[in-house]
Amino acid sequence: MSALEVRGLSKAYGGVQAVRDVSFSVDAGEVVALIGPNGAGKTTCFNLLNGQLRPDSGEIALAGRSVVGLRPHQVWRLGVGRTFQVTATFSSMTVRENVQVALLSHHRKLFSLGKPAGRFQVEEADALLARVGMQQQAARPCAVLAYGDLKRVELAVALANRPRLLLMDEPTAGMASDERQALMQLAAALARSERIAVLFTEHDMEVVFNFASRIIVLHGGEVIAAGAPDEVRANPRVREVYLGNA
Amino acid sequence: MSGSAVLLQFLNGLAGASSLFLVAAGLSLIFGVSRIVNFAHGSLYMLGMYLAVSLSGTLGFWLSVPLAAALVAAAGLVIETTLLRRIYKAPELLQLLATFALVLIIRDAALWAWGPEDRLGPRAPGLAGAVAIAGRQFPQYDLLLICLGPAVFIALYLLLSRTRWGTRVRAASQDREMAAALGVNERRLFTAVFALGALLAGFGGASAIPREPASLQIDLAVMSDAFVVVVVGGLGSIPGAFLAALLIGEVKAFCIGLGYSELTLAIEFIVMAVVLVFRPWGLLGRPLAETRGPGTLQPPLPAPSFLLLGGLAVLLAIVPVFAGPYTIVLLTDILVFALFAASLHLLMGPGGMPSFGHAAYFGLGAYTAGLLLLRAHLPMELSLALAPLAAALGALVFGWFCVQLSGVYLAMLTLAFAQIAWSVAFQWDRLTGGSNGLIGVWPAPWLSSKQAYYYLTLVLCLGAVALLWRLIDSPFGYALRAGRDSPLRAAAIGIDVRAQQWAAFGIAGLFAGVAGALYAFSKGSISPETLSVPRSVDGLVMVLLGGVQTLSGPLWGAALFTWLEDSLSRGVEYWRAAIGAVILVLVIAFPRGIFK
Amino acid sequence: MSCKVLIYCLFIAVSSDAFGQGQSIKIGELNSYKVFPAFLEPYRKGWQLALEEINRSGGVLGRQVEVVSRDDGGTPGDAVRVAEELISREKADVLMGTFASNVGLAVANLANQRKILFLAAEPLTDKIVWENGNRYTFRLRPSTYMQVAMLVPEAARLNKKRWAIVIPNYEYGQSAAASFRKLLTWAQPGVEFVAEQAPPLGRIDAGAVVQALLEARPEAIFSALFAVDLQKFVREGSTRGLFKSAAVVNLLGGEPEYLDPLKDETPEGWWVTGYPWREINTPEHRKFRDAYQKRWNDYPRLGSVVGYCALYAVANGIRKAGSLEADKLIAALEGLQMETPFGGILWRPLDHQSTMGAYVGQLAKQGGQGVMINWHYADGAKHQPSDQEVRALRKE
Ligand SMILES: Nc1ncnc2c1ncn2[C@@H]1O[C@H](COP(=O)(O)OP(=O)(O)O)[C@@H](O)[C@H]1O
Ligand SMILES: [Mg+2]
After folding, report:
1. Residues A158 and A105 placed together within one structural domain of the fold
2. CB contact under 8 A, C105 and B576
3. Range of the domain at A102
4. Domain coordinates of chain C in residue numbers?
5. Are residues A48 and A169 in the same domain?
6. Scanning every residue of chain B, which has its alpha carbon at the shortest distance from the alpha carbon of A53?
7. Domain match, A66 and A126 both
8. Does B161 lie at the interface with C, CB-CB under 8 angstroms?
9. Tens-digit pLDDT profile for chain B (596 aa)?
10. Residues 6+ apart with CB under 8 A from A209
11. Number of residue pairs across A and B with CB atoms under 8 Å?
12. Is residue C47 exposed (0-12), middle (13-18) or buried (19+ Cβ within 10 Å)?
């Protein structure tokens, strides 16, 4: 059974058909890239997957369990972590506190009135930050971080839940080239060692071809090609609509 | 009702709707473009009335109306350029505080300029009489009013849709950043829109004088009517405001026509609550264009300083040793309001939910305490202990609906619920004592000395504040704050933001209820004023004055505001204006709250 | 920073508590001057005039009288705090004032708790001397019940069968309506009440209300509207022809505070309670009116008389008691007879209500101004329920 199975997913905003009849699957331990030009429907896809949007039609299953109609916080409890294209962190908190909140949620302590949140699982939080290379900045307020660092914090936050599926929307935007490689290296290693299914979008083709074991190409909301990197690279339709523009 | 009675009441409703629309349209325009919730809009209307009444003495009615409107527009221009312009960058709620200060100042200015007496304007020459409609006499001027609303609506519609300026206004109200990127000169646009809004308010006021005397109380009444219309219609939507004005005008007229005039006490708030529950963005409104990015930038919240609180407690505990009895009375009030403000702060600060109706829970606590004591004959101590639970329950019921919304809509729904609670207390004479309230709510004998009651208040209020601070620092508080900082991110890590907010409502209600019950026993009586809008506004002012982004700010804000009111009202003739001026100075000097 | 501010606040609060105490008799006065300025400015001038007269003639018990006047903020909660300040910091010997009924009741309740004499000057509510009456509270003005009772004979004389009622929606209006129904049904068995409208105070939608009343086809209307509501009602009612078909009896409608703004729109023929200050030419009123006009260069309103009499009542009470002790003051005030511009009044020992009356008459226009004609003075002593009823209400 695949970690993620998507069948016939469609979503329209008013007149704009953002996602049309999309089907694909991602297996545990697999790193899959979802690519396509701007406006292709990638972010919309992610928002459908984690419950932020409700599909007009189609089916989404996590390890065989349907998640259509669940709200994002419920989808997360089923083991889906995500990062956002435009980073979303808690700007009134420090980097460590951001991770701690995610850990609190993981341990179902969100309604606890007990000991201060800042003292909750400090080591675990720092360990997660260490993984993404942010341990030095743990005590800094999130509001002052560079964009690339925010992306890293988001990754650490997403990992706090020991996700089965990791959705990363343009995880390396705003990073220098070597940082990109390092971050994706980490994601790929995690996928392998912890058997996490990783689905990511990316504009940097070098990153895509280096790390994706499979690539799904969206255009105008439709899947126009899917398969191993080499197949996709060779696909004439893809070359025409996408790589041709790149 | 006979057919002609229905027709006549329908026409009455239309006339009422027209006047409502004139004020509401300006408010909606201003909010749409500059996101300023202009509390002073009713004051501009009042200014229009007074000016028109004075001018009509020399110029005649017909000339006085446009002139008064123009003068109010000029006043709007001055307000925008000298005051509002300085604080567009400040947090939204602070702008609200500034416009509230304007309300105080304009009212006292009107008192100074025109004296305390109501001023009945002239009838409109040429339209002073009545025409026969369906065998009834209907005022000619009301017919003109009925046409005026749609005429202004069409003029605004053409202005916004057919002119380049209108396109810019629409662009700015849909997407501020985009408009700025497209080179719309924000400053000039904001000024012009504010002046236009003021013009409409002034025109609304001036054109109302044949039907309504100019009086100093009209400002807040009109303001709340206009708010309701704007919110029911959908913020920033002129057609929505038009529709809502029609709806509310007609509902009111038919309440009276059918013999349910008591209902008009709160009918518009009932309409608003119903509309918002079913249409969270009003009749024709759209979800507010969020500022770019999935979260707003929030400054860090400092850790609670229990040392400070402890020091404060010690200091306050020794005050009675050397201070006179009145100091103790005043400090008791300050402590109660400090807790009230701190409980509101939980919602406004970490919760990110501006509540305009927090007095509802304060009042619920006060009334429950009084009712348990007087009607159920429970001991005072037990009444005091149980009252906050009723307040929490009320907050949970109201909060359940409120957390489905956000921003100004949420604020207005809290206001609507508070108004409904107020009108129930006001109307339910048998239970609540109606407008007079409950008399004889005194503490138990061992607490009846001012000192004893002061110590009780001190312990309970500072204890409650400590609990609140602790709670804000707890996992619950962080999860709540997470939902405010970035609802998207919060949901994506398993936080059910609404559940968190709902619980916060209950807790804030509980503590407001403690404050309310303490207040009741310290005064010996309670009246509907404890859950009225001014009480809610006082709470808002205290929190904003002290600073939303701090923990101790609300305490200082409450102390400062209560003390200012107490000392200014004793020595200063125009003390309301003086408070307004102090607030303005503070807002401009410390845009993030004074104690930051 | 915040600590410093706190300490500063405390310092001020504490230091201002240490005010010294003079030899004068201190009367703590509180009223909602900023909320109801139109009615309370004349009231203030009234007691100021009385104060000057009293002190000019040597004060009371050989001491000067001092009035410490405060704005009570217009809400019961604030008013109680202000009263506390007057009692504990200013060491007032007597409290006096208040306008709105809820504020009056709250202060009366505090006076009872703190065992200090309170002379409620303006509040109209029946409850302040009946249901919620207490030993320490006395009230000067004729109550809602009394003023209704004064109007009922005129209403009955109109001999109309179908009555409509319009009142502001709060306790004053409600109890006026209840008293009117009860008393008129007594006086004129078989009357019908065909409609009742209770618009919110100060927010009447006059057009719709007048229309709704018209639909009920009443022969007469009892109204308890005043101020802005009255002005709007009069204008809409005359435009829509309501008063052509229905006679009107309006509580308080002849008080200059409410009558004067109507000017040339004053509806003629209405029966009202009020104060025809121009035409009352008894020696005691003429003396008051002349003194008031001389002092303030303005004519007296009803509030002026109330303020004037209230301070005199306090002074006379102290004089009679020969002491400032609350118990002695109460004993002195109970049964105290005194002269006022309206003639002699008595402070009823039964319920601490004064027997000050009101003038009942009809509205008319003279030179573009509203005036009262056909008026007579209705003595407050004669418009009371039986002592038995009052005792039952006071639960004593
Ligand atoms: N909230 C929205 N309302 C209307 N249209 C939207 C919205 N979000 C995205 N779209 C449209 O849906 C399409 C897909 O957008 P998106 O999923 O963001 O693409 P990508 O992430 O691939 O760049 C685009 O045409 C975009 O304009
Ligand atoms: Mg995208």
Report:
1. yes
2. no
3. 87-162
4. 3-142+281-357, 145-277+358-388
5. yes
6. B488
7. no
8. no
9. 788 889 999 999 999 999 999 999 999 998 888 888 888 999 999 999 999 999 998 999 999 999 999 999 999 999 999 988 888 777 777 788 889 899 999 999 999 999 888 888 999 999 989 899 988 899 999 999 999 999 999 999 999 889 988 888 888 777 766 666 666 677 888 899 999 999 999 999 999 999 999 998 899 889 988 989 999 999 888 999 999 999 999 999 999 999 888 888 889 899 999 998 899 889 998 776 444 334 456 777 877 888 889 999 999 999 998 888 899 999 999 999 999 999 999 999 999 998 999 999 999 999 999 999 999 999 999 999 999 999 999 999 999 999 998 888 898 899 999 999 999 999 888 899 999 999 999 999 999 999 999 999 999 999 999 999 999 999 999 999 999 999 999 999 999 999 999 999 999 999 999 999 999 999 999 999 999 888 998 999 899 888 888 889 899 999 999 999 888 888 788 888 998 998 898 888 877 666 55
10. A229, A233
11. 135
12. buried
CA nearest B87: which of B75, B102, B104? B102
CA proximity to C19, closest of B314, B270, A32, B323: B323
Ligand 1 atom having least distance to the Cα of A45: 17
φ, ψ for residue C303, nearest 5 deg: -55, -35
* C-alpha dist (Å) from residue C20 to B442, C23, C90: 30, 10, 9
Phi-psi region of A86 (alpha: psi -120 to 50; beta: other; left: phi over 0): beta
Domains of chain B, first to last: 3-278 (1.10.3470), 322-532 (no CATH)
Pinpoint the alpha helices (H) of B163-237. Answer: 164-174, 176-181, 186-208, 218-233
CA of A39 to the centre of ligand 2 (A): 7
Assess if residue A109 is contained within a domain.
yes
- Residues touching ligand 1 (Cβ under 6 Å) are A 13, 16, 18, 36, 38-44
Question: Same domain for A39 and A140?
Answer: no
C152: left (phi over 0), alpha (psi -120 to 50) or beta: alpha
- Closest chain B residue to the Cα of C194, Cα to Cα: B259
CATH of the domain at A60: 3.40.50.300
> Among A140, A162, A184, which residue terminates a domain?
A162
**How buried is B3 (Cβ within 10 angstroms: 0-12 exposed, 13-18 middle, 19+ buried)?**
exposed
Q: Which of C9, C103, C264 to mutate to probe the B interface, most B CBs <10 Å?
A: C9
Report which of B278, B263, B275 is spatially closest to residue B232, judged by C-alpha positions.
B275
Which among B6, B19, B260, B261 is the top mutation candidate for probing chain C, defined by the most C β-carbons within 10 Å of its own β-carbon?
Answer: B261
By a Cβ cutoff of 8 Å, what residues of chain B touch chain A?
A: 292-301, 303, 470-471, 473-479, 481-482, 484-486, 488-497, 500, 503
B319 vs C81: CB contact, 8 Å cut-off?
A: no
A161 to chain B: which residues are within 8 Å by CB?
493-494
Shared-domain flag, residues A145 and A209: no
Do residues C173 and C167 lie in contact, with contact meaning Cβ atoms separated by under 8 Å?
A: yes
Distances B226 to A135, B77, B244, B269, B566 between C-alpha atoms, Å: 53, 20, 10, 12, 31
Residue A134 distance to chain B (closest CA, Å)? 19
If asked whether residues A152 and A32 sit together in one domain, one would say no
Counted across chains B and C, CB pairs separated by less than 8 A come out at: 239
CATH code of the domain made up of C3-142+281-357: 3.40.50.2300
**Both A171 and A202 in a single domain?**
yes
Domain count, chain A: 2
> Which residues of B, range 116-155, sit inside 8 Å of C by Cβ?
116-120, 123, 128-130, 136-139, 142
Kindly report the backbone phi and psi dihedral angles of residue C203, in degrees, each rounded to the nearest multiple of 5, phi listed first. Answer: -130, 30
Whether domain C145-277+358-388 has CATH 3.40.50.2300: yes
Assigned token pair, A208: 């895509």
Integer Cα distance of B549 and B542 in angstroms: 13
